[in-house]
Amino acid sequence: MKNGNIKDVKKELLSNNWYTLHKFTYKYQRPDGSWETQEREAYDRGNGAAILLYNSKKGTVILTRQFRMPTYVNGNEDGMMIEVCAGLLDGDNPADCVRKETEEETGYRINNVQKVFQTYMSPGSVTEELYLFVGEFDDSMKIGEGGGAEDETENIEVLELDFVQAMDMVASGEIKDAKTIMLLQYAKLNALVQ
């Protein structure tokens, strides 16, 4: 770590169940020069990548719908979320990851992907850095049904939506996933889909 305002970092493992949760205790130098002890927890699930698939001729996008337990316990009545295709890097480079996840989750085999953002989605508690991509698809690229990898219990529903409808779903609150909103807005601002 390179921040000179941080020293004496101690790391304690709190959980290693699904991913890892660590507690960090450290000294932080305040603007007045004094040092204070701080404690924070950080959830580490690895880095990930996500992609918005779009078809400029048809004016559609491919999104997914699946159950997300954390949203369910935080007031999302049915726990279902509409999202762009995404997954953890698991040792892959980000572009290879989105190509693999696209095939598993949506059934489309795409080659050309364009990275548009690299972001921390919840930097106060989650270590994950997310690489965001866009990629154009057409019907000839469909090689399977999608739905996710058999061994990952994802139960993903594939949605091909009119782009205007998807943007309306953001406005109405039906789409609440941040990475999906960011990529849809990117597509709108850059006129990828009309």
Key terms for this structure?
194 residues, alpha+beta, seven-stranded mixed sheet, three-stranded antiparallel sheet, 4 helices, 20% helix
Walk me through this protein's architecture.
It is a single chain. By secondary structure, the protein is α+β, with helices and mostly antiparallel strands. The protein is built from four helices and ten strands. Strands 4, 5, 6, 7, 8, 9 and 10 form a seven-stranded mixed beta sheet that branches. Strands 1-2-3 form a three-stranded antiparallel beta sheet, with no helix packed on it. The longest helix has 13 residues, at 94-106. The protein is elongated. The termini are far apart.
Question: Which helices and strands appear, and what pairs or packs with what?
Answer:
Blueprint: E1 6-15, E2 20-29, E3 35-44, E4 48-55, E5 60-67, H1 69-72, E6 80-83, E7 85-88, H2 94-106, E8 114-120, E9 129-136, E10 157-162, H3 163-172, H4 178-189
Parallel strand pairs: 4-9
Antiparallel strand pairs: 1-2, 2-3, 4-5, 4-7, 5-6, 5-10, 8-9
